[in-house]
Amino acid sequence: MNNYKSFEVRDWLEDLKFQRWVYHGESDDFWQNFLRDNPLQVANIELAKETLLSVRGEQDLISEKEVKYRVARILEAIPNEEKEPFLPWWSGNWLRVAAIFLVMTGFGMVFFKGKNFSAQFLPLSSTGIRDNQKPQMLEVVNKTSTIRLVNLPDGSSVILKKNARISYPKQFDKDKREVSMTGEAFFEVVKNPEQPFLVYTGSMVTKVKGTSFSIRANDEDEEVKLVVKTGIVEVSANDPDRIKAHKEIRKIVLKPNEQVTFNRKSLSMVTKMVAQPVLIDLSVEKQDFEFKRTPLNEVFAALEKTYGLTIRFDKAAVSNCTITAKLGDEPVTEKLEMICAVVNAKFESRNGVISVTSGGCE
Amino acid sequence: MKHSERLPETYLISRWQQLCKGDKSAFGEITEHNYAALYHYGTRFTADRDMIKDCLQDLFLEIWEKRESLSYISAIKPYLFQSLRNNLIHRVRRQSVFSEIKDNDPCDELSPESDWIINETDQLTANRLKKAIESLPKRQKEALYLKYYENLSYDEIASVMGLQRQAVANYLQYGIQKLREYLQHAVISLAASAFLFWY
Questions:
Q1: If you classify domain B114-199 with CATH, what class do you get?
Q2: pLDDT in tens, chain A (362 residues)
Q3: I need a surface site. Which of A82, B95, B178, B187 has the fewest CB within 10 A?
Q4: Residue A4 has what DSSP assignment?
Q5: Could B36 and A64 be called an inter-chain contact, meaning their C-beta atoms sit closer than 8 Å?
Q6: Looking at beta carbons, which residues of chain B come within 8 Å of A64?
Q7: Is residue A102 domain-shared with residue A251, that is, in the same domain?
Q8: How far away is chain A from the Cα of B43, in angstroms, using its nearest Cα?
């Protein structure tokens, strides 16, 4: 400080106390006095000050309040104890989540033999509204010994286990999406509150309100079971008599880890809490697709295994690609879209085979 | 920014070590202490403030996640700056993929010139400062910023920017020289008027 009087511009630039005055207004009295007492330094100081300010650039300060808020958010995102955190990299609106449910009707195929499948299951006839204009129905039965993926017209996907069967219209109604099924299956449903997704399993109706859950509806059993994974699910009895009589239908709204046991005969419903929302032995049931710098080929392998897909891609081209993401209950096509967006790739599906083309990752 | 300036380095290093051992309050303090400076540095690269905040959240969560392996770090601030920089550049590139902006040199997409506008009341000064800083290449600007505004050493700047020390020295030398030359002429008249005012 003693030699401030002989400072040149470059000395001022390097002086910490001077920098702090310029950037943070510290010791303002001292510097005002110094300027007054040392008029020969004014020019140097002005130049140094302007240089420093131009180096700093635009002031875009964040308030202390917001910093505190942001830090609190970060601390909230830390899991308790040893659970691994994940890095949320996608914004909320990416997630048009999805409902997952599993339906299990084991032996029940015998039960329906010889009956009109869609009449048995689809409530269209029982509600009596659209008898004259039934949409074209599609039916898929998994006759393989492994799982089979079915993509529904709305983008939702269903994994059918062996002997499972699903029936759905070629095009869903505008106001609702109705499917019926038997066997064991896993659904991932695109969320669309305007167009509820209804699953008919015999006398039980499940209405998806944008969530994930599992159903187990063994036709040889008197009971149907359903467990919610996330979100809210509404269950009610498909009771034509009461509908005709315009009587109120009993509904149960279920939240995560809540299980309902539905009695097919009495149409009674009993709920309880469970530790894990798992009903049938499918990896996807509890799969959370959490990837941390996971090589793309491993990510694809996980998807292939879970959904019974075949994904073709150039191993060399994507050798540097990794994914850090937590995928939820999105239908498989949405998962692929997200992944491809991250690694700058495109995919197309033909004859059940997904082909991914990527420019590689740096 | 002021609140983040004055904690002694030794204190921060000991807090960092506690963080690495799983101390959440140390983690919170380190995060809060560095947030504003990192945010401001982030505004050098993108005008997307939300993206900066996202990156910061990712950055600190990642630090927490791998805290046990980070106890070797003694230069905390350069480490954080470097991490944010890599993170942001990566995102800006990725975003350009999303928005289909094609550019041969992704680095040139960073730091829109408008981000370096000086926010000063004096329009004349602001314009002059803006022009001065705009006349510099981006990396020179960044090196100057890290040196003068953040007080990082040459070595620290080199590690943050992924450069050789000598390159940093060159950037700084030419950058500051150019700025001074640019500002010199105008400042003389300004200083003269200030001089007259005081006397």
A1: mainly alpha
A2: 558 888 888 888 889 899 999 988 888 889 999 988 888 888 888 888 888 888 888 777 788 888 988 999 899 888 765 444 443 433 333 333 333 344 443 333 333 333 333 334 444 433 334 444 556 888 888 888 888 888 888 888 888 887 888 899 988 888 888 998 887 777 777 777 778 888 888 778 888 765 666 666 656 677 777 777 666 778 888 777 766 676 667 777 877 778 888 887 777 888 777 776 666 666 666 666 778 788 888 888 888 887 778 888 888 878 888 887 777 777 777 788 878 877 778 888 877 788 888 777 76
A3: A82
A4: G
A5: yes
A6: 3, 36
A7: yes
A8: 7
Exposure of A243 in the CB half-sphere (CA atoms within 13 A): 14
Q: What residue numbers bound the domain in which A254 lies?
A: 93-273
This prediction's pTM: 0.45
A144 and A11 assigned to the same domain: no
Residues A101 and A163 in one domain: yes
Strands A310-313 and A353-358: parallel
B67 touches A at CB < 8 Å: no
Q: Does A52 touch chain B (CB under 8 A)?
A: yes
Do A206 and A247 lie in one domain? The reply is yes
Q: Do B133 and A23 touch (CB under 8 A)?
A: no
Task: Provide the chain B residues 129-168 that lie in CB contact (below 8 A) with chain A.
Answer: 129-130, 132-133, 141, 144-145, 148-149, 151
Residue-range domain boundaries for chain B: 1-110, 114-199
The structural domain count of chain A equals 3
Nearest CA among A291, A283, A279, A282 for reference residue A327 = A291
> Taking the alpha carbons of B6, B12, B13, B16 in that order, is the dihedral positive or negative?
negative
B23, closest residue in chain A (CA to CA) = A81
Inter-chain CB proximity A46 and B191 less than 8 Å:
yes
Residues A25 and A144 occupy one common structural domain: no
**A265 & A308 share domain:** no
The CATH architecture of the domain made up of B1-110 is Orthogonal Bundle (1.10)
Which residues of A, range 19-48, sit inside 8 Å of B by Cβ?
Answer: 19, 23-24, 35-36, 39, 42-43, 46-47
**DSSP β-bridge partners for residue A166:** A140, A181
- C-alpha closest to that of A197 among A173, A226, A224: A173
Predicted ipTM? Answer: 0.74
